[in-house]
Amino acid sequence: MRLQYLYLDELKEIPGLDFTEYDSSDPLEIHAFYYNDLRLYQESKLSTARFVKYKDEIVGYFTVSMNAIELDKLGKDEKVKGATPKKYPAMLIGRMGVDKKYRGRGIGSEILLFCRGLAIEASHEIACRYVILHTTEARAHFYRGSGFVKSGNPPRKGIVSMYARTV
Ligand SMILES: CC(C)(COP(=O)(O)OP(=O)(O)OC[C@H]1O[C@@H](n2cnc3c(N)ncnc32)[C@H](O)[C@@H]1OP(=O)(O)O)[C@@H](O)C(=O)NCCC(=O)NCCS
To answer: Of 88, 90, 101, 140, whose CA is between 20 and 30 Å from 148?
Structure first.
């Protein structure tokens, strides 16, 4: 599938898309964030947004930022022998969404692959050992399919934290 990834300033305006669930709920605020917070987070460098273009349509978005994951949240074999840090550098996928009309075609999985590539690319300049994200149990299957595994101690009840290595 040929997807293109555009920066916020490449578009005149934020395209009208629908990131709600099939029952119109927005439990992880992917839709609300897109309309209310995208620009603020971008301009204040809290996260970088990319729009996802498929054929001639914008069909999704995601945001990423620098972050870190505590060693005790990772699997035992993730510890780097001989290294002292208690946290390892990670890129956080803060939000991601595919418009309702375009779900189930592999676009979300392609975005995850692109994000892992971004982290690998970035790590040539600024080390980045993991890609991390927070989701729900219901969505964990989607991320598992792209090689993410659950980490320990999620930030709150009902949230599942996951990671994938860049190396
Ligand atoms: C989650 C989301 C990004 C997936 O995008 P997508 O383009 O539909 O995903 P894909 O077509 O690549 O799906 C890949 C696999 O994940 C599964 N999957 C997709 N969305 C899922 C969901 N919401 N819950 C559980 N599994 C899901 C698919 O069934 C497919 O499984 P399979 O390989 O066993 O057939 C999209 O459904 C979405 O934007 N949802 C609303 C916003 C949201 O929940 N964002 C994620 C926040 S953590």
So the answer is: 101
Ligand 1 binding pocket, CB closer than 6 Å: 19, 28, 30, 96-98, 103-109, 135, 138-139, 141-142, 145
Residue nearest to ligand 1 atom 39, measured at CA: 97
Please say whether the structural domain 3-165 has been given the CATH code 3.30.565.10: no
Residue 145 alpha carbon to ligand 1 centre in Å = 10
Cα 141 to Cα 123: distance, rounded to the nearest angstrom: 27
Output the pTM of the full model.
Answer: 0.96
Question: Token pair of 44, please?
Answer: 């204040």
Cα-to-centroid distance, 79 and ligand 1 (Å) = 30
Query: Domain locations in the chain?
Result: 3-165
The tens digit of pLDDT for each residue in 60-115 reads: 999 999 999 999 999 999 999 999 999 999 999 999 999 999 999 999 999 999 99
| Strand-pair category, 57-70 with 160-165 | unpaired
How far is the centre of ligand 1, averaged over its atoms, from the C-alpha of 137 (Å)?
12
